[in-house]
């Protein structure tokens, strides 16, 4: 029999996202996306392999022949129970980091083995996400105006009180127009729809709803976070072309089905961590101060519903004694 997670692995995951953020934040504004991503990946893999778990990456970055990315199917951890699925995004918002813009974060999630949705070849998904107050009020098949009215009722607000976050893409022009016609406010973002989805469940962000087509892997990560926070996400797979649609159907994917949060992550044994790389609505970015740095993280567990906010100070003179990661400098 497989051993289910019992201890709070989320606290272990905080070390993972802190490490990735500390390594990646050195590249803020330097215009080098690959270098920042590489630093985050290396740090994340190193710390994940210290956690007592038998983990398999379900949501990763790249395939095995593109290593050292964290590829789908890679095994991480010490190899001891519990057996878990892992979803990673070492940098959600790589371009944001390279340009020194807000809301670049590092994220990782763990759930009971076999419980995370595997998107296969389908890179994109049409998504709608809300926080706890509006859970049960959204319907991906309903008109956007109807959804906005339902969310407003759930939050005892008017539609023009709501703020909707949408990726700034040409494909979203019709959605943007419908939201404007309904009267809601819009926050357009260039990247980072994991952060955007999580913002809907974080009252201090001021975001009420996420709508639009974004990454399917990011949808699974967002589902893990929202399950911990009591929010809701719905999604429908969105093939990029006829060839991708045909392949998905051949592999048994239902392209018409609305996937709910339990389809995206079936277990309640879910753990999630975010650490800020650059400043944003969810978390502050890494702050260096010569002798060390400060990080800001959110760490959560679905079974207990606990969301912890962790502000940590890292001292190079202590950390670098046993760390294999050059947090105190680039390279």
Topology:
Layout: H1 9-24, H2 33-48, E1 54-59, E2 75-76, E3 83-92, H3 94-99, E4 105-112, E5 124-130, H4 144-154, E6 163-167, H5 173-182, E7 185-189, H6 193-199, E8 209-215, H7 216-229, E9 232-237, H8 242-250, H9 261-264, E10 270-276, E11 287-288, E12 292-301, E13 306-315, H10 316-322
Parallel strand pairs: 1-3, 6-7, 6-8
Antiparallel strand pairs: 1-2, 3-4, 4-10, 5-8, 5-9, 10-12, 11-12, 12-13
Helix pairs in contact: 1-2, 6-7
Along the chain, the helix and strand elements come as: HHEEEHEEHEHEHEHEHHEEEEH
Helix/strand/pairing category:
alpha+beta
- Quote the beta fraction: 25-35%
Question: What sort of overall outline do the alpha carbons produce when their principal axes are compared?
Answer: globular
Q: Summarize the amount of helix as a percent range.
A: 25-40%
Terminal Cα span? 44 Å
Quick check: average pLDDT? Answer: 92
Main beta-sheet annotation: 8 strands, mixed
